[in-house]
């Protein structure tokens, strides 16, 4: 729990997500009946049969879901009310949940609910997904509308979850070409990734002219994650975040995947520092409560991976051209392919509390899943009630 880390920041308590609020996009009738109970009793074996194998029912799940969704909806409401230009909910970003079922560790799609809230004021919302996995739940929710343009950069290979998000998936009906998928192979590095994003982002900015932006910052794309796929670092993702912030639009940042807790905390901490416009130390202070989690180097930086990059420069160029020229939405000439320089140095100060916020979010998000999808009981779920939305109130 963090409050007033900086003078320019305010912490807001999330409003509870009433059962009636998310019914536009959450559960089918049977799911609503299950989650209408305030407390779900777990069988002695610890397992409750549920429609989705990777989203087991655990005690207190309704309150958990309510808090996650309520935090993202509160963050979106703050943008709608004009109380801030940037809001953050690192515990959000559950982008796999579908209209009729939980999926991919996601019991509710808080992203969709937040976008619905933003649509009460903003006519064109841009959704950007940096998670390693395709944001299939969000894409499916808005595949038929031109009012939400979804962009997902993700790993796409046979057998890799969720198996969707190929280049030719562009939406349907009136929403055709308002879905942009950027399928990548193993080993992509910061330079190619950032160059590709800048190329596509420039096109989207000029062609779509969004009124608001929602960004899912899943940290499982970072080197060190058990998924063992990309060679990215928080500094590379940070360059993409800076591009988004330069648009000066109402923007909601959400968390997402990330199964290496220290690496995820490092990533979200670094992104938070960029949003707040402050420099933080690369050395983790030994006074930090989670100091030992960051061994052996005790540094903020995550080193790039050394996996073979299966995405050649020519592959990335062709992918950019296919996206930028293959859609009628982009009527101007394709942007030039340009290499983006490596990240800038980050400096020193006010590190402890920012890192603590990210680490706390990671621990709460992953608390119900150990290695091998082990189910545990949420006997201390009340801790979730301290989840907060961090707000940046002045212009960046």
From TrEMBL:
Signal peptide range in chain numbering: none
Subcellular location: Chromosome; Cytoplasm; Nucleus
Histone deacetylase domain location: 51-274
InterPro entries cross-referenced by the UniProt entry: HDAC_I/II (IPR003084), HDACs (IPR000286), His_deacetylse_dom (IPR023801), His_deacetylse_dom_sf (IPR037138), Ureohydrolase_dom_sf (IPR023696)
tRNA-binding among keywords: no
Gene3D superfamilies hit by this protein: Histone deacetylase domain
GO biological-process terms attached to the record: heterochromatin formation
Transcription regulation is among the record's keywords: yes
Gene Ontology cellular component terms for the protein in this record: chromosome; cytoplasm; nucleus
Keywords: Chromatin regulator, Chromosome, Cytoplasm, Hydrolase, Metal-binding, Nucleus, Repressor, Transcription, Transcription regulation
Name of protein: Histone deacetylase 8
């Amino acid at each position: 729990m963090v409050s007033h880390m900086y003078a320019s920041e305010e912490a807001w308590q999330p409003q509870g997500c009433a059962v009636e609020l998310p019914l536009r996009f959450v559960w089918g009738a049977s799911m609503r009946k299950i989650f209408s109970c305030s407390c779900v009793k777990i069988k002695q074996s610890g397992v409750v049969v549920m429609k989705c194998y990777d989203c087991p029912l655990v005690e207190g799940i309704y309150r958990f879901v309510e808090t996650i969704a309520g935090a993202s909806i509160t963050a979106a409401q703050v943008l709608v009310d004009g109380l801030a230009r940037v809001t953050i909910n690192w515990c959000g970003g559950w982008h796999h949940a579908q209209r009729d079922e939980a999926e991919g560790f996601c019991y509710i799609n808080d992203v969709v609910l937040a976008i619905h809230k933003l649509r009460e004021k903003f006519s064109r919302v841009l959704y950007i997904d940096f998670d390693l996995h395709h944001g299939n739940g969000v894409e499916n929710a808005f595949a038929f509308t031109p009012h939400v343009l979804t962009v997902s950069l993700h790993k796409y290979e046979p057998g890799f979850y969720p198996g969707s998000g190929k280049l030719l998936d562009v939406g349907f009906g009136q929403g055709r070409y308002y879905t942009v998928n950027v399928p990548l192979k193993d080993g992509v590095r910061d330079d190619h990734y950032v160059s590709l994003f800048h190329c596509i982002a420039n096109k989207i900015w000029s062609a779509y002219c969004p009124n608001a932006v929602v960004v899912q910052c899943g940290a499982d794309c970072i080197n060190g994650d058990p998924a063992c796929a990309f060679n990215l670092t928080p500094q590379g993702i940070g360059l993409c975040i800076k591009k988004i912030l330069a648009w000066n639009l109402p923007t909601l940042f959400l968390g997402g995947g990330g199964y290496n807790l220290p690496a995820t905390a490092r990533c979200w901490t670094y992104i938070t520092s960029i949003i707040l416009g402050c420099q933080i130390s690369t050395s983790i202070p030994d006074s930090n409560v989670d100091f030992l989690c960051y061994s052996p180097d005790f540094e903020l930086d995550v080193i790039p991976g050394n996996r073979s990059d299966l995405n050649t420069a020519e592959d990335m160029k062709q992918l950019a051209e296919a996206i930028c020229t293959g859609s009628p939405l982009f009527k101007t000439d394709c942007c030039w392919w340009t290499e983006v320089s490596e990240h800038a140095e980050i400096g020193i100060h006010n590190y402890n509390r920012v890192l603590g916020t990210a680490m706390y979010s990671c621990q709460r998000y992953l608390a119900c899943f150990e290695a091998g999808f082990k189910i545990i009981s949420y006997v201390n779920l009340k801790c979730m009630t301290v989840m907060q939305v961090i707000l940046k109130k002045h212009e960046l």
